[in-house]
């Protein structure tokens, strides 16, 4: 036992000025709670949830309201025990937000982390009969607390109910309190994961800023000498054509093509790395048919390809127009570049679903092998086919398409049979 001279600040606030009531001084003899085992680790676990001194939240207030109604008590608290106090994440029926730790019933309750702690009448219990919270407001006569024990086994505090007269709980009420306590722990864990995710997101965003800057500088530094190589190769082939044999001209052409291909490859990597810039721009209502007509005019100005639209002309979608154009442009260009037919046919179908808009781009090309249909969406992966000019793709275009589709809340898939063309389908969240 410990004799204490206790200075208590009354918890009732004056409505007029939000000030606290008068200070009372009491002399009392009481048993202060023992520290739980592994107290240092328990305190670290509690701080890890970043919940102490946080703002009131409806989810927690709903729980204390339910606990009070279920148990028929005027007060219910979500109490967390730190090194000096018990702090209330939610306080139904009580104005106070904290009390000293040495007065806290909950500080006793957490020493038995697996069982409910019930005091039917604190006036008859030697641990609490002269506790300032018993002999003064809020007059804690009846107390029942369920320890809030996390998955590592540390009791963080309690969900408790309080009455100012003797009381008891039946089996149903105890079971309900335990269920509500489990829900509090679930909310704590969700809070912790959310904070961790936000921290990681900020770290990733910071790294992306550095990577984008590096990618831009690297692209510029590499493209400049490549442009010089292309220019010199062209100049050399024109000015010294009469002094070079066929093999020499072929070597110059090889240098030229390789430099151009590498330039295009670098452009593709840079554009892929900057995809988030496309998605973060302003969204607007896009008329799908008008957007497709503009793209088709760009890639097939003389009408060599037969396009078929299978959707209503007035279909619109609220999305990032630039990203949508990039997705459609890549799929349409691929359907033309890799087509082996004399007459290229491309069908475009759009369906207005409940939460998504579904697009299908179907061609009459050579088709894609089943073993290639998943990996072609991965960066730097290509199918074994080449385009009409005999050039193999960089493996960036479809990876970029997949990244943008998923960034807009959708998915992309491919259905294809060899000799039967390919059907690229993707959805965008409306």
DSSP strand (E) fraction?
Answer: 15-25%
Share of helical residues = 40-55%
Mean pLDDT across residues? 84
Total of DSSP H or I helical runs spanning 4+ residues: 10
Q: Indicate the structural class.
A: alpha+beta
Summarize the structure.
This protein is of the alpha+beta class and 430 residues long. It is 40% helix and 22% strand. The protein contains ten helices and 15 strands.
What does this structure look like?
The protein is α+β, with helices and mostly antiparallel strands. The protein has helices at residues 39-47, 58-71, 105-109, 132-135, 171-239, 246-273, 275-279, 288-299, 321-337, 397-407, and strands at residues 2-9, 23-30, 75-81, 85-92, 98-100, 117-119, 142-149, 155-163, 284-287, 306-310, 316-319, 345-352, 356-363, 412-416, 422-429. The strands form 4 sheets. It has a 6-stranded antiparallel β-sheet.
Blueprint (SSEs and pairs):
Elements: E1 2-9, E2 23-30, H1 39-47, H2 58-71, E3 75-81, E4 85-92, E5 98-100, H3 105-109, E6 117-119, H4 132-135, E7 142-149, E8 155-163, H5 171-239, H6 246-273, H7 275-279, E9 284-287, H8 288-299, E10 306-310, E11 316-319, H9 321-337, E12 345-352, E13 356-363, H10 397-407, E14 412-416, E15 422-429
Parallel strand pairs: 10-12
Antiparallel strand pairs: 1-2, 3-4, 3-8, 4-5, 6-7, 7-8, 9-11, 12-13, 13-15, 14-15
Helix pairs in contact: 2-5, 5-6, 8-9, 9-10
